[in-house]
Amino acid sequence: MNHVELQLTGDGSHTLFNAEINETYHSHKGALAESRYVFIHAGMDAMLEQTQELSILEVGFGTGLNALMTLLRTREFSRVQHIKVRYTTIEPFPLAQELIDGLNYKALLPEDAAPIFDALHQAPWDQDVEVLPGFILRKVHGRLEDFQGQTDSVNLIFYDAFAPSKQPDVWALDNFRKCFALLQSGGMLVSYCANGQFKRDLKAAGFSVKPYPGALGKREMTRAWK
Is residue 14 part of a domain? Predict the structure, then answer.
């Protein structure tokens, strides 16, 4: 993938820049900080107030950063209460190993995060893998449009695709209808995106949409419930 290159973000962590669509994988203000705020604080932590068992669907595995942060948070919570996480992530275009090896997340996180990050990327596609006790990973090589999941099977969705202007097909209303069907009652979809059409389409699909303060100076992000 010679059109993808490493870039340093504002918090010192790496993101990747895709020159083909002129878009980065994370906020230029901080990849780690964005993931921690949007998907862990506003997503995972909020749902753990209701249940100790999470079934997460991520749209866009990318660098694996959200999966890594989720696993580390799972381990942190498990020191005080036993929680279980099933993490399914969909990615149509897996990154080349040389790009993954160049990312500096392992240098910025606790030392024992390194083998965990490697295990996430070395896990085979389209198979359940217990990366750590209580954390089951399934990486799905494909598109959300083709994903065949069970109705009412997940309670948290990380919607982390490239921006709607870059990947409009991923942000189509039919995909949000699929997400709504996949979610259990009371489940939540969380995204860095606060695009107006995105929120209108979520509502059209049946979601209750509530704005939430955005990360790293952004005015808003989105949380939506079934």
Answer: no
Domain encompassing residue 40: 31-225
d(CA 157, CA 194): 15
d(CA 120, CA 69): 11
Q: Which of 218, 187, 219 is nearest to 202 (CA)?
A: 187
Q: In what order do the strands lie in the sheet with 208-213?
A: 128-132, 135-141, 84-91, 53-59, 154-159, 183-191, 220-225, 208-213
* Total count of domains within the chain: 1
Q: Supply φ then ψ for residue 82, to 5 degrees.
A: -80, 120
Q: Is residue 78 part of a domain?
A: yes
pLDDT digit string, tens, across residues 49-96: 999 999 999 999 999 999 999 999 999 988 778 899 999 999 999 999
Q: Is residue 186 part of a domain?
A: yes
The partner residues of 110 in beta bridges, in order of sequence, read none
- pLDDT band at residue 2, thresholds of 50, 70 and 90? low
Residue type, 24: T
Residue 120 lies in a domain: yes
CA distance 163 to 141: 20
CATH number of the domain that 180 lies in? 3.40.50.150
Whether pTM exceeds 0.90: yes
Strand boundaries in 75-146, DSSP class E? 84-91, 128-132, 135-141
Show Cβ contacts of residue 208 under 8 Å, excluding neighbours closer than 6 positions.
224, 225, 226
Q: Are 89 and 137 in contact (CB under 8 A)?
A: yes
